[in-house]
């Protein structure tokens, strides 16, 4: 008759539970998988499948009682590690949303806002369009596969049991400023072009006061803005691929990896 002790059962459960917590924490906010359009059951089953597949190659886990308070804290710790790893990708994706918001303000489309049930908020129409475009580019570059590979490597580079506060948290905080710098870099040509258009209509209103600048300027600004958006798509994929590589490299370095 097969007999198992409580320690053996706890060890067996921990083999799948700790990896599942870290992977599920990443799937909560990871682009595409973290969207509310993806059912929670699909995310849970995918996290369980990955945990089962990588369990034989994982380093040894700390011996912790599965029903102890220490096990609860360890599970929360793994959720936070996975959450912070995926946060690099979420920041990268929302660069495109901020680019669209900057262009919308210059075009006069800032008032055209669409509710976004996937992210629980409201975004400008152009920002939502750029967000979808950035997500498709990320998937086309196989960025989601590279992110899953980094997530699996995190169990080797940052084994289960190492504290969250030992991670380089300032590097993650520094990505907040990176999102503004990256989005401004992508939107700068269109912003400068729209600025020249607005300056031209300002000079025109001073030269010919009888001209109705509001009736002429608003449609012309929108037309020139749409042309700027059209031309910006020519060099956007190559620039955005560099941003994806930078975000994935920062994600890898966050857990102690060497790019």
UniProtKB/TrEMBL annotation:
The keyword Ligase does not apply. GO terms for cellular component: bacterial-type flagellum basal body; plasma membrane. The keyword NADP does not apply. It is a multi-pass membrane protein. The chain crosses the membrane at residues 12-33, 40-59, 79-101, 130-152, 172-201, 213-233. Its main location: membrane. Keywords: Bacterial flagellum, Cell membrane, Cell projection, Cilium, Flagellum, Membrane, Transmembrane, Transmembrane helix. It comes from the Bacteria. GO terms for biological process: bacterial-type flagellum assembly; protein targeting. It is found in: Cell membrane; Bacterial flagellum basal body. Pfam families: Bac_export_1. Belongs to the FliR/MopE/SpaR family. Role in flagellar biosynthesis. NCBIfam families: fliR (TIGR01400). This is Flagellar biosynthetic protein FliR. It comes from Shewanella piezotolerans (strain WP3 / JCM 13877).
């Amino acid at each position: 008759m097969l007999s198992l002790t409580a320690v053996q059962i706890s060890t067996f459960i921990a083999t799948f539970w700790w990896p599942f917590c870290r992977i599920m924490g990443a799937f909560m906010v990871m682009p595409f998988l973290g969207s509310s359009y993806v059912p929670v059951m699909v995310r849970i089953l995918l996290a369980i499948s990955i945990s089962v597949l990588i369990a034989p190659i994982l380093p040894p886990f700390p011996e912790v009682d599965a029903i102890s308070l220490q096990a609860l804290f360890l599970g929360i710790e793994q959720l936070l590690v996975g959450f912070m790893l995926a946060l690099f990708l979420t920041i990268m994706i929302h660069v495109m949303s901020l680019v669209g918001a900057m262009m919308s303000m210059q075009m006069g489309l800032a008032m055209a806002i669409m509710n976004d049930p996937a992210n629980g908020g409201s975004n400008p129409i152009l920002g939502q369009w750029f967000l979808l475009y950035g997500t498709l580019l990320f998937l086309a570059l196989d960025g989601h596969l590279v992110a899953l590979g980094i997530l699996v490597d995190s169990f080797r580079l940052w084994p289960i049991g190492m504290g969250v506060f030992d991670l380089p948290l300032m590097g993650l905080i520094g990505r907040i400023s990176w999102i503004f710098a990256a989005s401004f870099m992508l939107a700068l040509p269109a912003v400068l072009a729209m600025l020249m258009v607005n300056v031209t209509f300002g000079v025109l209103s001073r030269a010919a006061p009888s001209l109705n600048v509001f009736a002429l300027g608003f449609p012309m600004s929108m037309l020139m803005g749409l042309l700027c958006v059209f031309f910006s798509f020519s060099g956007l994929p190559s620039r955005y691929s560099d941003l994806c590589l930078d975000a994935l490299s920062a994600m890898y370095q966050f857990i102690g990896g060497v790019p």
